[in-house]
Amino acid sequence: MMKCKVEKFEVEKKSFQVKFEGSNGGTWVSVTKRSRGFVVSVGFGKEELDWLTEHLKKAVELEDTRGFTRKFRGENKIHLMEICFNNRGRFMKITEIATRRKPLLLVIPEGVKGNGWEVLRRAILSVQDYSDQVGEELKKTFGNTQMSKSIYRGGRSYAEMVAEDGLRSGVPLSAGK
């Protein structure tokens, strides 16, 4: 059974959830926003999380009258962070652009003195620390079974392992109709 870590918080009547999504061997974190019947969830890999936490910290420290736009280009998706203004104050837009689907848009209000963004950053760091701990535990338990794409434990490829055993005899099976 896979362990799970979830951090929940609220900023200006909007609920957010940061969750470690580590089942199926992947290590990524999702940030989900729930408000008025809408649910938006954006996923971040390890490099993307490092980029996000770094820029969240910069956004909190930024002057109230300033904004910025930053982009992170991953393997198969792009994340865009924008600090914007409206009559209610500042907010952050995080857009995930991937091929073959509509862009996902996550809007996070600044809160009081950047508190909303700081709480998000701390939640991400907490979940990220947890994911690192789980990764270390799994390595201790199972070892590094696959060293590279085609080389397995013992430094042999799958083809070499099969070739060593020689020809195999099998039992014919009927395909049936």
Question: How would you describe what is shown here?
Answer:
The protein is an alpha+beta fold and 177 residues long. It is 29% helix and 36% strand. β6 and β7 (89-98) form a beta hairpin. α1 (46-61) packs antiparallel against α2. The longest helix has 28 residues, at 115-142. It is globular and about 70 Å long. The two termini are 39 Å apart.
Short description:
The chain is of the alpha+beta class and 177 residues long. The protein contains three helices and ten strands. The model has no long low-confidence stretch (mean pLDDT 78).
**CATH class membership:** Alpha Beta
Termini separation comes to: 39 Å
Q: What percentage of the residues does DSSP assign to strands (E)? A: 35-45%
Number of domains: 1
- Proportion in helices: 25-40%
User: What is the 3D shape?
Assistant: globular
Radius of gyration: 22 Å
Q: Give helix and strand order, one letter per element, not per position.
A: EEEEHEEEEHEEH
Q: What is the tally of helical segments?
A: 3
Main structural class = alpha+beta
Which secondary structure elements does this structure contain, and how are they paired or packed?
Blueprint: E1 6-11, E2 14-21, E3 28-35, E4 38-44, H1 46-61, E5 69-73, E6 77-86, E7 89-98, E8 104-109, H2 115-142, E9 151-152, E10 156-157, H3 158-165
Helix pairs in contact: 1-2
